[in-house]
C-alpha cells in the first residue's frame, strides 16, 4: 500500500506549526515532544506528509482492531450522520439499542445490560460506582501492574507511574500483586505455584483490609499497557471464588483485551470466568468514534430497578459511535476477524516473536496471544535485569529510544512502554504485514542487543 496523496512537506510543516502553537498533548512534557504530522491512514498503515509509510504495530492505542478507514464502518458513520447525528441518552434510539444487543450477545454469562460511556476510563468509573452502590461498601482492590484510565477513580486504581501525580491516597483503593511468573513477587518457579501464592496473597490482603469493607476487585483480564501478562490457569477462577465467598463484586476490565484482541470476543472466554461487571471500549468500534461501556449482570442491574442509578453522560451511546460499533461488530463477524486474530497469533506472531527471542540477547521473554504480544527487553537474560530502569526517562531510557528509532527507520511504528515493546497490530493484520513487522523488529532488536551484558 502506498500513500494516497503525493508528499507535501509544506503542508506537513503547517500542520506541525499549528499543533505546536495550540495543541496541549496528553502524558507529555510539552517542550520535549515532536509529534509526527500524519497525512493519512488505511488498514494497518499510516503515512506522513513526507511520504514515509509506517506499519502500525500499536493499532493507534491498541484500538484500531479492524485497521484504519474500513469502508463499511466509514459508510455506516456517514449514513447515520445523514439520518440522526445525535440524541440525548434518555431516549430509545434504534442504533443504540442494536449496538447494545450485539455487545450483550457476545459478553459471557448474564452480562446482558449495557451502560454506554464515552470511553474506557469512564466505563471503569461507572463500574466502580455500581459496585459501591450495590454492596454498600467503599474499598476497591486493584493490581500494581495495571492501567485503568485517567479519570479520577480510574487513575487511582491504576498501578503504573502515571497514577503518581494524581494519587490522593484517599480514594478507597487498595493495591495487591497479581501473578506474573517472569518477575514473580512470590519467588515462584512454576505457574501453579504463582497461581496458588497470588491467590493466597489476595486472600491475606482481603482479610487484613476487612472483607466487609471491600466493594470490588478489578483486574484487567489480560493486563495491557502493564505488560500483557496472561494470568496462569486457575487464577481468575480463584478470584471469582474469593469474590463469591465474601460478597465482593468482580470487575474485569476488557477495554484493551476485548473485541478480538486475544483471539476471542472477550479475553474472559479463555479462562471460563464470568465477572459481575465488565468494562469495554477501544475495539468495540475500532476507535472510529469514542465509545465505551459497562456490561452488567442481572443481579447488579436489579439493584437499580427501583432506585435511580446516579450516573450518566451527555454523549452516552452517541448515535454516530453506536453506528460505528454496529458496523464494526458486523465486519468482525462477516470477515471472521476474531478467528483471524487467534490464527495469526498462533501461526505467525507467536512463533516469529519466539524465534526472535532465541536469536536476540535483549529479549528476555515473549508472552501473549492473538494480536496481543509483549517482548520483555533485558540487559541480561540470566539476571532478567530490565534493559532500562523502571519509569526511565532521558539518558537512562536511551536504549529503548534507540530501539524505537531503529524500528521507525525500517518502517515500523512500535509500541514502547518501560523496557518492553508490544506487538499489537490490527486484529485483521495480514500474514505478509505481520512478517514485515517481525523483520523490522529483528533489525531494531539488533540495536537493543548492543546494550546487553
Q: What does it look like?
A:
By secondary structure, the chain is an alpha/beta fold. Helices cover 39% and strands 15% of the residues. The chain has a 7-stranded mixed β-sheet, sandwiched between helices. It has a 4-stranded mixed β-sheet with strand order 1-2-3-13. A 4-stranded antiparallel β-sheet has the order 11-12-15-14. A hairpin with a 2-residue loop joins β11 and β12. α3 (71-83) packs antiparallel against α11 and α4 (94-106) packs across α11. The radius of gyration is 22 Å and the shape is globular. The relative contact order is 0.14. The mean pLDDT is 97.
Defining traits:
453 residues, alpha/beta, seven-stranded mixed sheet, four-stranded mixed sheet
Give a brief description:
The protein is an alpha/beta fold and 453 residues long. The protein has helices at residues 9-22, 59-62, 71-83, 94-106, 120-135, 152-157, 191-209, 235-246, 268-271, 298-303, 319-334, 337-359, 398-409, 431-449, and strands at 38-42, 45-48, 53-56, 113-117, 139-143, 173-176, 214-220, 249-253, 277-280, 292-296, 363-369, 372-377, 412-413, 415-417, 420-423. It has a seven-stranded mixed β-sheet with strand order 4-10-9-8-7-5-6, sandwiched between helices.
Sketch the topology as an H/E string, one letter per element: HEEEHHHEHEHEHEHEHEEHHHEEHEEEH
Number of strand segments? 15
Main β sheet profile: 7 strands, mixed
- Main sheet strand line-up: 4-10-9-8-7-5-6
Number of helices: 14
Determine Rg (CA atoms, Å): 22 Å
Please state roughly what percent of the residues sit in beta strands, choosing from under 5%, 5-15%, 15-25%, 25-35%, 35-45% or over 45%.
15-25%
Mean pLDDT: 97
Share of helix among residues? 25-40%
The separation of the N and C termini measures: 40 Å
Amino acid at each position: 500500500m502506498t500513500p494516497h496523496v503525493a508528499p507535501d512537506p509544506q503542508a506537513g510543516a503547517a500542520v506541525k506549526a499549528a499543533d505546536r502553537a495550540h495543541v496541549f498533548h496528553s502524558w507529555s512534557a510539552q517542550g520535549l515532544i515532536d509529534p509526527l504530522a500524519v497525512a493519512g491512514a488505511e488498514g494497518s498503515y499510516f503515512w506522513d506528509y513526507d511520504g514515509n509509510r509506517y506499519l502500525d504495530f500499536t493499532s493507534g492505542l491498541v484500538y484500531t482492531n479492524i485497521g484504519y478507514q474500513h469502508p463499511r464502518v466509514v459508510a455506516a458513520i456517514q449514513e447515520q450522520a445523514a439520518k440522526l447525528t445525535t440524541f440525548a441518552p434518555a431516549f430509545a434510539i434504534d442504533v443504540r439499542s442494536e449496538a447494545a444487543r450485539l455487545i450483550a450477545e457476545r459478553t459471557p454469562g448474564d452480562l446482558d445490560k449495557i451502560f454506554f460511556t464515552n470511553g474506557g476510563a469512564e466505563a471503569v468509573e461507572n463500574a466502580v460506582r455500581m459496585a459501591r452502590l450495590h454492596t454498600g461498601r467503599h474499598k476497591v482492590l486493584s493490581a500494581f501492574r495495571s492501567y485503568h484510565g485517567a479519570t479520577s477513580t480510574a487513575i487511582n486504581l491504576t498501578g503504573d507511574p502515571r497514577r503518581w501525580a494524581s494519587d490522593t491516597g484517599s480514594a478507597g483503593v487498595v493495591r495487591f500483586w497479581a501473578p506474573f511468573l517472569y518477575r514473580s513477587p512470590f519467588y515462584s518457579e512454576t505457574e501453579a505455584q504463582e497461581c496458588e501464592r497470588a491467590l493466597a496473597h489476595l486472600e491475606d490482603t482481603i482479610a487484613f483490609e476487612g472483607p466487609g469493607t471491600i466493594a470490588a476487585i478489578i483486574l484487567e483480564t489480560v493486563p495491557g499497557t502493564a505488560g500483557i501478562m496472561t494470568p496462569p490457569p486457575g487464577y481468575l477462577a480463584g478470584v471469582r471464588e474469593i469474590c463469591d465467598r465474601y460478597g465482593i463484586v468482580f470487575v474485569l476490565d476488557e477495554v484493551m483485551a476485548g473485541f478480538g484482541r486475544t483471539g476471542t470476543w472477550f479475553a474472559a472466554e479463555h479462562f471460563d470466568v464470568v465477572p459481575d461487571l465488565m468494562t469495554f471500549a477501544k475495539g468495540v468500534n475500532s476507535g472510529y468514534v469514542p465509545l465505551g461501556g459497562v456490561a452488567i449482570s442481572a443481579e447488579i442491574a436489579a439493584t437499580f430497578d427501583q432506585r435511580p442509578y446516579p450516573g450518566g453522560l451527555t454523549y452516552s451511546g452517541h448515535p454516530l459511535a453506536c453506528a460505528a460499533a454496529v458496523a464494526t461488530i458486523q465486519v468482525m463477524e462477516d470477515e471472521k476477524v476474531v478467528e483471524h486474530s487467534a490464527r495469526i497469533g498462533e501461526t505467525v506472531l507467536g512463533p516469529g516473536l519466539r524465534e526472535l527471542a532465541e536469536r536476540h540477547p535483549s529479549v528476555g521473554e515473549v508472552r501473549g496471544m492473538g494480536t496481543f504480544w509483549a517482548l520483555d527487553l533485558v540487559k541480561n537474560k540470566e539476571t532478567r535485569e530490565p534493559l532500562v530502569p523502571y519509569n526511565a526517562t532521558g539518558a537512562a531510557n536511551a536504549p529503548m529510544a534507540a530501539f524505537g528509532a531503529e524500528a521507525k527507520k525500517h518502517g515500523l511504528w512500535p509500541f514502547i512502554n518501560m523496557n518492553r515493546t508490544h506487538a499489537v497490530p490490527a486484529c485483521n493484520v495480514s500474514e505478509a504485514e505481520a512478517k514485515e513487522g517481525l523483520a523490522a523488529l529483528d533489525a531494531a532488536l539488533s540495536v537493543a542487543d548492543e546494550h546487553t551484558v
